[in-house]
Amino acid sequence: MGTKVVTARGADALKKVGTPLEALRNYMTRSKRSPVEFIGRPVWAEVSLSALRQNLDAIRAYVNPASEKRRAPRKILSIVKGNGYGHGGPEIAKALEKFGSDWFGVASAGEGMELRKAGVRKPILVLGGFWAGEEKYLIQHNLTPAIHRCEHLALFDAAAAKARKKHVPIHLKIDTGMNRLGIAADEVDCFVNQLAKCKNLELGGTFTHLASSEVFTDTPTGRETPAQLDLLFGALDRLRALGVSSGIVHIANSAAIAARPESWADMVRPGAVLYGYHPGFDPISLRTEYEARLALRPVMSLRARLITVRSIPDGAGVGYNASWVATRPSRVAVLAAGYADGVHRSLGNRGCVYIRGYKASIIGIVSMDVSMLDVTDVPDAAIGDIATLYGTDGANVYPANVIARSIGTVTSDLISGVSRRVPRFYLE
Prior knowledge:
By secondary structure, the chain is of the alpha/beta class. It has two domains: 10-47 and 300-427, Lyase, Ornithine Decarboxylase, Chain A, domain 1 (Beta Barrel); 49-293, TIM Barrel, CATH 3.20.20.10. Helices cover 29% and strands 22% of the residues. The chain has helices spanning 10-17, 27-32, 49-62, 81-85, 89-99, 109-117, 135-140, 151-162, 188-196, 224-241, 254-259, 285-293, 400-406, 411-415, and strands at residues 43-48, 75-79, 103-106, 124-126, 144-147, 168-175, 183-184, 201-207, 248-250, 267-268, 300-312, 317-318, 324-325, 330-335, 352-355, 358-363, 371-374, 386-393, 396-398, 424-427. Strands 2, 3, 4, 5, 6, 7, 8, 9 and 10 form a nine-stranded parallel β-sheet that branches. A six-stranded antiparallel barrel has the order 11-14-17-16-15-18. Strand 18 and strand 19 form a beta hairpin. Helix 3 crosses helix 5 (89-99) and helix 5 (89-99) packs across helix 6. It is elongated and about 75 Å long. The relative contact order is 0.15.
C-alpha cells in the first residue's frame, strides 16, 4: 500500500479521520464516513505529529533544567532506526528536524540514506557502524559512523581520502560492559594510535550504551549502570590524557533520560520515550514517579475495521486448530489486521482491542492478515466498526506498553512491528 501523508489540524483533523462514535451509525453511513480515504485493506496507523513535538519539547526541557544554568543546552539525538520504531523513519525524521532535533540515530547506512533522500539535513549517526564496502556511501551521504572496531578507522580514512574529504567526523563507541558493540574501555590507547594515522578523520563524539538503566534494585543488574559510567568516564579521562578531545559525549537512552541525570552528558538519545512510552522500571514503584515527572503522549494509534461479523453456537471453535472455543452463543468479528500488519502473534487468546470504548478480546490464533474478536459484549458491533489496538481514541488512551508487558515483551518490539504495508497518516 505504501505510505500516505495526510495533514489536518484541530477540529479538521477529527473531521478528516472520523471518530469511533461514528461506528454507532449503520453500515452504509460508516462506509461513507471513512476515517481516511484510501483504497485497500482497512488497516492503518495514525501518527500524531503534535504528540511527537510535545514529547520532544518535554524531553528537551527535562534534560535542560533551568537550575543548571548551562552555557549550551544539551542536544537531542532522536533515534529513528527501525523505520522510526514503526512510525515511518523518513517522515518522522523530517518532522523532528522541523521541531528542532539536533541529531538523528539510525542502525545502518541504508537507513541513513533513506533519511537523506527524504531531505533530512541534520547530522545522522549510524549507530551500527558500517560493513566493509559501505564507506563510500557514508562519505557520499554525509553520514557519521560509530567506530566500534579499531580496524574500521583505516577503512574509513581511505574512503575519505579517495573522496578528497578532510575532517570527516566519526564517533567512538566504547563498550563499557554490554559486550555487544564497541571498543573496550582499556583499548583507548589502541584507538588513539590508529586515529593518529588517519589524516582525514576527526573524532566528533564519544558514547556508550547502557544495558540496564531502568533497573534500580540492589542486585548485580541494578549496580551495572554506575559501573558502566565509571568505565566510560575513565576512558574519557584517558582520551584527554592522550591529547584527544572526546567531542560530544552521549550516554543516556530512554530510561536514563527519565531517571539518571548523571548520564545526560552533552547529548541524550531518546528512543521509546520520543514515541510516548517509558520503559518498565524496576522496581515497579518507580514507574509512576518517572512517568509523572516526564509526561508523554502516545504518538501512534493502530486501527483496523471489522470486515465481517457472525454468530456462532456454544462449542464452536475459531481459527487455526480451534484454539478458542465458544462457551456460550457468541458473536465473532474478523479484524482486517494480522501479524503481518503489526498485531503481535502472542496476542492470540490474550490480547484485546477497543471498539467504541468497549473491550473486545482477540480470540484464536492471530493470522497473517486478520485477527478474530469476541464482540458478544460490544453492543451492535457491525461490519465497518473501527477497532483500536493501541494509542488514543478520543479521550481514551490505550497504551502500547501495557499491551507489551502483558505478552512479556517491550514496547519497541510491539510498535516497530507495524509493517510497511500499513498506510500511515500524519496528523498535525
